[in-house]
Amino acid sequence: DGGITQSPKYLFRKEGQNVTLSCEQNLNHDAMYWYRQDPGQGLRLIYYSQIVNDFQKGDIAEGYSVSREKKESFPLTVTSAQKNPTAFYLCASSINEGGSGYTFGSGTRLTVV
Amino acid sequence: QQQVKQSPQSLIVQKGGISIINCAYENTAFDYFPWYQQFPGKGPALLIAIRPDVSEKKEGRFTISFNKSAKQFSLHIMDSQPGDSATYFCAASIRGGYALNFGKGTSLLVTP
Question: Are A78 and A92 within 8 A, CB to CB?
Fold first, then answer.
């Protein structure tokens, strides 16, 4: 059963801590993405990766970091530099460019306590 | 800078009615326009998509109307059902590009 798995579903972070969100896909997709969703703001692109060991900043990359060491995995680290990290984070993948064929994970809700 | 502007922000429709959500864009390099449906606590799922070489695409109760000269596209949900209650996002992407540019979303409530 192919798809994207995000974990954990809920995550709580203390201020000043880094936290890593997991995203794994078994769709054999080349491209992977991280979006942030806030109420009334739509989805905003944080980072994306077209191939292994390569990634590009999106519109709101400040305070975030990513790695792409394996085709199946694209973890997102929310660093202490991100001043307002509470949000719903969505990982997606696509087989190629052009925007078509996006598959989203079920998301991770991060809350700063 | 929001590259895709979506309206309305929220919409209430009676069961059996037509739900209409509109989007507008400025970048003429966009050539793929999908609509996504999202239920609470879930990721968005592709509903229907269109490319600018056609003016309309229909899949079941869902229709996209596309007006290239006006740089606008809309989603029509015919015979709306309570199960259609969700948040809908329009999006656009550039040929050869990777990222989808999303609108801010429309929260649809279909009342019984």
Answer: no
Amino acid (one-letter) located at B56: E
CA-nearest of A23, A39, A13 to A90 is A23
Predicted confidence band of residue A1 (pLDDT cuts 50, 70, 90): low
Q: Are B60 and B78 in contact (CB under 8 A)?
A: no
**A21 at interface of B, judged by CB pairs closer than 8 A:** no
Flag whether residue A87 sits within 8 Å of chain B, measured between CB atoms.
no
Farthest CA pair distance, chain B: 43
Residue with tokens 């060991």: A53
Question: Quick one: average pLDDT of B77-84?
Answer: 98
CB A71 within 8 A of CB A28: yes
Instruction: Classify burial at A92, counting beta carbons within 10 Å of its beta carbon; exposed 0-12, middle 13-18, buried 19 or more.
Output: buried
CB nearest to B104's CB, from A41, A48, A97: A41
Half-sphere exposure of A77 (CA within 13 A, CB side): 10
Helix (H) or strand (E) holding A45: strand A42-49
Nearest to B30 by CA among B91, B104, B95, B105: B95
Query: Cβ(A61)–Cβ(A111) under 8 Å?
Result: no
